[in-house]
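User: For my dataset I need records formatted as: sequence, then C-alpha cells, nothing else. Please produce one.
Assistant:
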Amino acid sequence: MAIQSVTRTHRASIRNQRQVRDGLDTLGFAAAKLWNVARWTAGRVWDACGQIPDDSVLKSYLKSHERYADLNAQSSQRVLEELDEAFRGWYGHRDNGNEKANPPGYRKSGDEHPRATVTFKEDGFKHDEKNGYIRLSKGRNTKEHWSDFILCAYDANPDVTIENVQVVRAVFEHGEWRLHIVCRHEIEVESPGDRTAGVDLGISNIAAVSFGDETLLFPGGWLKESKHYYKCVEYECEGENGLSRRARNAKRTLKERRRHFHHTLSKRIIDECVERSVGRLMVGDLNGIRSEDDGAGRNWGRHGNKMLHGWAFEQLTTMLEYKGKAAGIEVVVDSERDTSKTCAVCGHKNGSQRVERGLYHCENCGRTANADANGAENIRQTLLPNPDAFDRLDRDNGCMAQPATYSFDATEGRFLPQERVRCEP
C-alpha cells in the first residue's frame, strides 16, 4: 500500500448566490477588461516589431495599469497567462498549416463585456473547511474598504472532501456563478497487479488498448459527429463582428462534450486495466505528430490536417495519467515511433504493410491484424523486460484481427459493447 498525492477539481454551487452575484460580476467584468487591455497592448507591439510579447513582458508592462488593480494581483497575472497560452495555441495551429486559425480576440460582445473566469491562487482566497465557506479577494480598485471581500457559501458533492485547496476559480455557467475548487488529496493506493497494457491513440478509433491476450477498440464516431454538427453551427453563425451568441454556445457545448467523452473513455480504460490486474500502462506520445523533425509543420493533407487540429489527445493522456495514478497504475508516456509499421507478432518492419486504413498485413509472417490493435500491442511490448522472449509466434490472429469494440452510448453516457449500443438518432 502506497500513499499518492493526487489533484482533483471539484465543482461547487454557491448557496448565497444573491448576496455574492454583484461582487462576482464586477470581478468577471474586470477580468474581461484586463484581457482586452492586454490584447490591445500585444497588438500594438505586434504591429510595431512583428512579435507578440509573452506573459512576463505583459505583467511587467501592465502592472501599473488601472485595470490591473481591479483584481487580486495573482488573479490579474493569471489573466495575462491565459492570453499568452491562447497566443501559443494560435502559433501551433498556424505552424501546423491551419490557415483559418485566428489569433485570440477581444472579450466583448457588442458594447458589453462578458463575465470572464476569475482564478484565485494562494493569496487570493481563504478556505473555511469546517463551515463550508471560501473568501475571495477583490482588487484594490473594486474594494469599498481595505478589508472588503466576497464570502461564498458553497455546496460540493457530498461524496468528496474539500481539503488542501490549491486554486479556486469563479466560473459563470448557465446563468449563475459556480466555484471550481482544485484540491490536493492524499490517498492510499495499491497496484492492481503486475500485468502490462498498451494504448494506441488515434482518430477513427480514439483508443486501442492491448492486454497481450486481448484487445479493446474505442471508436470516436460520436465525437466526430458532435464536432461536425457544432462546427457547422459555429461557422454559420459567425458574423462580421466575430462569433454570435449562438456560435459561442455551440463552441462551448462542443468543448464540454469532448471533455465528457474523454472523461468517460479514460475511466473505462483504467477500470478495464484494474479488472485485468494491470499495474503498468504504456501510452503512445503523439506530441510530435503535428511537426517534422526540424520543427516545421507536417502536412497530412486537407482532411488529415483538419482532423488533427481538433484532436485533443493531450487531454486524454492527462486524464489517463491522473486516473491511473489514483488506481495504483503506473502510466508511462513515451514515443510511439514505428509502432504502426512494425508487426507485433514477428517484429518485421515495413511501412507498406498497412494495406488499408484499418488493416495491417505482415509480408514476413503472413499475419493479418487490425492496424490499431497491432500498434497498441507494439506499444505494450516496449514496457516488457524482454519482448523478444515473449510468446509472439504462439498467439493466434483472434485478439488482434478481431478485437472487442466498445462504442459510446450517448443515451447512457458510457461505453458499451458495440452490439448493445442503442442506434436511436
